[in-house]
Structure formats: C-alpha cells, structure tokens
Amino acid sequence: MERPPAPLNADDRILIVRLGALGDVLRALPAVRTLRRAFPRSRLSWVVEDLSRPILEGHPDLDEVLRFPRPELRGFARRPLACVRALSDFGTRLR
Predict the structure, then answer these.
(1) Residues 6+ positions from 45 with CB-CB distance below 8 Å
(2) What is the rounded distance in angstroms from the CA atom of residue 93 to the CA atom of residue 45?
C-alpha cells in the first residue's frame, strides 16, 4: 500500500532538478514563484547544467543555483577518479 507524501513544512528545503534543456527550464520558472509564495521561509535551490545556468542566477526567488557537473562525468570511462571527485563535490554541496 502506497503512503501519500508528507506535507512540506514552511521551512523545509526544496530542490528543483531540471538540468539542461533551455525550454524545460523556462517552462519551470513559474513554479519557482509559486513555491516561494507557498513556502516563503524554505530554502529553494535548483540543480542545472551550464547552458541554462545564466537564466537562473540572480533569480529573486531562488536561494541557490547548483551546477550539475555533466562535462566532468562524461570522462568517466577515461578518468574514473575525476568522476568520483566531481560526484563527491556535488553531493557535498547538496547536503
């Protein structure tokens, strides 16, 4: 039996993951305003790739824009240690 998701508290942290497609990022922007109005004390962050990052940086309703390290991950087969470092750094920022 499936449980319904727990309701958000006013000061919860919210993470939006819409990585790279410019159109998808633009279409999701109204949700940022809606989330901010519904949860004004929450920490609102967005994970995005480099291409769409300039659109989000400085947005008044976002507290943080996190860069997803896709270029570093592409070299996984040739440089597994670099991939592990990139994922570790990214995971640390998410916490």
Answers:
(1) 13, 14, 15, 16, 62, 63, 64, 65, 66
(2) 11
